[in-house]
């Protein structure tokens, strides 16, 4: 790992869904920790990226607040990290236009989100020009906008999920093309994937995912959370029977929320017999509640005072605009604009 003290950590989050505990443990918490250790950090809400999916003004507004409140409640330090809305940085969009001119169309053809949309059309029996059915230019040029997000404030280390690695690599390609033509202006970023966390299972034992409907939201009413946890699918072994904790969703989740001693107790209870699934679910519920109690309060307070969220995001945007404007100025100068 490179020296974090010298990195400018930057990442974006689409305001499309409320986070679940898999997102929290697998992405949000590690990104916050990374930002805290880095010399400098930028985190933004990618609202123009969300426009490709969300076509309802109220929904986009609501999700933006919800994502902002989630990250702040889960520990993002908005004093240290520039936390902002992508849409508040107009320089990003001018940079997108410049980058478009140096991006080969073929590169966009290879982007996995576009390819997946094409494959879906193929599966539906579409052919020829119809293969682009339902695909808008926002989806097609998504990697260029993402490159501008990263290059504008000169992010050097970009924490992302595995599915986003290709986009960071494309950012390097696009920045490389620009630099090749116009001089060494843009900073090439590296991606960063948190390897150690592993994937959290969902209620049915598969990977926890919104798309499988097996997730536990981070922020929800306690009673509802308890009900969800009680729904975790198990086999029908009796409490006194020994069980393998490593094949057990309750234990897998518990590991992320319990102390070392608590983990060891549940583990040995399962292995020796004596730990029933009902009791284990109650312990899991209590550990999750303990971890999320304080964040939940902060979350609810923030959502009750959206002006406060606006003020924080505006402050972050001021800082991000400063760096983005400097990058844009260098780019304009390099290409021959005033
Ligand atoms: P979902 O599958 O619910 O749509 P996303 O694909 O939006 O989740 O994931 C957002 C981030 O959260 C990614 O960085 C991903 O690696 C992380 N993540 C998602 N699901 C899990 C999980 N079950 N366990 C750990 N991390 C996860
Ligand atoms: N594309 C990312 C996602 O779907 C979100 C995103 C937009 C992003 N711009 C970014 C992530 C810049 C990192 C850097 O999750």
Helix content: 40-55%
Structural class given helices, strands, pairing?
A: mainly alpha
Q: How many domains would you count in the coordinates?
A: 2
Q: How many E-type strands?
A: 5
Report the span from N to C terminus.
40 Å
Instruction: State the CATH topology of the largest domain.
Output: Rossmann fold
Structure description:
- The chain has 338 residues and is mainly alpha-helical.
- It has two domains: 4-199 and 306-335, HUPs (Rossmann fold); 219-298, Tyrosyl-Transfer RNA Synthetase (Orthogonal Bundle), CATH 1.10.240.
- It has helices spanning 21-37, 47-50, 57-73, 90-100, 105-109, 112-123, 137-140, 142-151, 165-182, 222-230, 249-254, 260-272, 277-303, 306-335; strands at 8-13, 40-45, 81-85, 157-159, 190-192.
- The longest helix has 30 residues, at 306-335.
- Bound molecules: adenosine-5'-diphosphate and tryptophan (TRP).
- Tryptophan binds next to strand 1 and helix 8.
